[in-house]
Write a structure and sequence with these properties.
By secondary structure, the chain is of the alpha/beta class. It is 35% helix and 19% strand.
C-alpha cells in the first residue's frame, strides 16, 4: 500500500488566516482531504482534528506541518507527540520552515 502524505494546520483563533499554510501544503502535493485543520490554541494536543489525524496516520506516512509553533506551544508536549508519531506509529514528520527536522 502506498504511503500517504498528510498535512496538519493549526491557527490560534477564528479569524487567523490558514491560507498561507494551506497553500504550502498543496505545493507539497498533499490532497485537500488529507489536510487537517484546527482553529484553537496550541496549549495542548486535545484538538479534535489533530486527534482524528492521529487515528488515520500509519507507519510510513508523512505528516507535514508548516512550523513547530503551528504544531503546539508546549515543548514537552511537542516532544511527546513527535516521539509518539515517529517512534510508536512510525510515521515521518516534515516541518516546512525547518528542513533540519525532516525525519524522512
Amino acid at each position: 500500500m502506498e504511503n500517504r502524505k498528510f498535512g496538519y494546520i493549526r491557527v490560534s483563533s477564528k479569524d487567523q488566516n490558514e491560507g498561507r499554510q494551506l497553500e504550502a501544503m498543496k505545493k507539497m502535493g498533499i490532497n485537500g482531504r488529507d489536510i487537517y485543520l484546527d482553529k484553537q490554541s496550541g496549549k495542548n494536543f486535545e484538538r479534535a482534528n489533530y486527534q482524528l489525524l492521529k487515528r488515520v496516520i500509519r507507519k510510513g506516512d508523512i505528516l507535514y506541518i508548516h512550523s513547530l509553533d503551528r504544531f503546539g506551544r508546549n515543548k514537552e508536549e511537542i516532544l511527546q507527540e513527535w516521539n509518539d508519531l515517529t517512534k510508536n506509529i512510525e510515521a515521518d514528520i516534515v516541518v516546512l520552515d525547518m528542513p533540519l527536522l525532516d525525519t524522512t
